[in-house]
Amino acid sequence: MWASHVVHHSSERLNLSTAFRQSLTYPVSGMWMFWLPLALLGFSPPHIVIVVAINLGFQFFVHTQAVGKLGWLEKVFNTPSHHRVHHARNGKYIDRNYAGVLIVWDKLFGSFVEEDLDVPCEYGIVKPVRTHDPLTLTFHEWRDMLRDAARPQSLRSRLGQLFGPPEKAHSQGPT
Ligand SMILES: [Zn+2]
Ligand SMILES: [Zn+2]
Fold first, then answer.
1. CA atoms of 58 and 125, how far apart (whole Å)
2. Of 31, 76, 130, 173, which one has the greatest count of Cβ atoms within 10 A?
3. Which helix (H) or strand (E) is 110 found in, with range?
4. Spacing, Cα 113 to ligand 2 middle (Å)
């Protein structure tokens, strides 16, 4: 999933155009699994597509530095402030605020961090990919992940390369 989502995070700027920086590989990495429960609950395909579209449309507006904090909305909804934190790679902010629409999930599960205006967000990924080539941007993490998984190692380690969190994979060496 990170091999796909890294495309969105590889921008070192955060603005509305970042929202369009998406990966072609989400169908492979299984993003559809997030929506599968709706189908299992009996919602019709058109209803699911509408919900996906509304969710995607909402995401567009949180990719901006032009909007400050939004009062009580910050308590309930994902906002530009919360999503700036999500895109930041500084230690205080990294791997936080996963919310799509409702920030309450991050608050419930302990992954919420408030944007501190004294600590500016540094946008991008820990190991920047310095290219504008769309193929490289789309596939670099897949390439690295598969290369690391192909190295001689235990099955457990190999599965960790493929299915573990990114910090367990190549970026931190063979730990
Ligand atoms: Zn984003
Ligand atoms: Zn993200």
1. 23
2. 31
3. none
4. 14
- Report CA(71)–ligand 2 centroid distance (Å): 23
The structure's pTM equals 0.89
> CA separation (Å) from 128 to 21, 25, 29, 140, 157?
15, 19, 21, 11, 25
Distance of CA 119 to the CA centre of its chain: 21
Q: How far apart are CA 166 and CA 162, in angstroms?
A: 9
Write the pLDDT tens digit of every residue in 37-92. Answer: 999 999 999 999 999 999 999 999 999 999 999 999 999 999 999 999 999 999 99
Q: CB–CB of 79/66 below 8 Å? A: no
Provide the CA 129 distance to its chain's centre, in angstroms: 16
Partner residues linked to 123 by β-bridges: 88
Sign of the CA dihedral running 79, 99, 86, 4: negative
